[in-house]
Amino acid sequence: MKARVLSCLLSCSLMPAAEHPGWKTLFNGEDLQGWEVRGKGVWSVMPGGVLVGHRIQENAAAPFPSGWPVTQAQYKSWLYQQAWLYTKEQFEQFDLYLEYWLPRGCNSGVSIRDLSRAHFAIGEADADRPDLAGFRKTTPAHIGYEIQIIDPPDRFPTGSIYGLVPAKFGLQKAGEWNTLEIESRSDAIRVRVNGQLAAETAADPQRPARGPIGLQLHDQFTFILFRDIRIKERAGFTIE
């Protein structure tokens, strides 16, 4: 059954996206050119230009170095270690558009303005990024901003600006392709899910004004599909 569903998802994506004047394609539909893998995630491109993200299950029979049994803290540390895919390029004021498909029980998101590139969230050694010495050791959602993608919804449903503004419930279509649009300006951030306003907030002057775009694999069991990822830079524009 799962194989038939995935086959349908891929076959339904074979029609090339229409040209969009002024927009730049971030994902070329063929490979990961222009992107950087961060953490232990697997990112591959399927027929029809679909980007697939899931986790690496290294040594699945014995995932904990200390062996069994493990404490709840050890389990949570393993479970919630994130993985990401970031654009090599940074952006400041822009409109971002993408389409995604998320199975029930999975958790993902889109990061903007995260200069750490998930350094702390993926468990990277601090010595690898001495430039982050003054940063709070936390996830991309608290360094830049993260737009939530999740099913089923929690208190921050899909479209939320995570940790800041919860989105309206019911905007995401379960078991279908959905659209996500993010407007990033110097003074504000606005999010739409399937064309409907989900959340907006004033920009935080204490957070970076620019940074890469990131796609999240929240935990060890996340699986997600993306397609038609594009951006339009909007320097000098404000959100009305």
Characterise the protein shown here.
- The chain is mainly beta.
- The protein has helices at residues 2-11, 72-79, 140-143; strands at residues 24-25, 35-38, 41-46, 50-55, 83-87, 94-101, 106-112, 145-151, 178-184, 188-193, 196-202, 213-217, 223-233.
- It is built from 3 helices and 13 strands, in the order αββββαβββαββββββ.
- A hairpin with a 2-residue loop joins β10 and β11 (196-202).
- The longest helix has 10 residues, at 2-11.
- The chain is globular, with a radius of gyration of 18 Å.
Task: Give the key terms.
240 residues, mainly beta, Jelly Rolls, 8-stranded antiparallel beta sheet, disordered N terminus
Q: Which percent band covers the strand fraction?
A: 25-35%
> How big is the Rg?
18 Å
CATH class assignment: Mainly Beta
Number of helices: 3
Order of helices and strands: HEEEEHEEEHEEEEEE
**If classified by CATH, what would the architecture be?**
Sandwich
The CATH superfamily label reads: Exo-inulinase, domain 1
Quantity of strands, as a count: 13
Largest sheet: 8 strands, antiparallel
How many separate domains?
Answer: 1
Summarize the structure.
This protein has 240 residues and is mainly beta. It has a single domain (2-17, 24-233), classed as Exo-inulinase, domain 1 (Jelly Rolls), CATH 2.60.120.
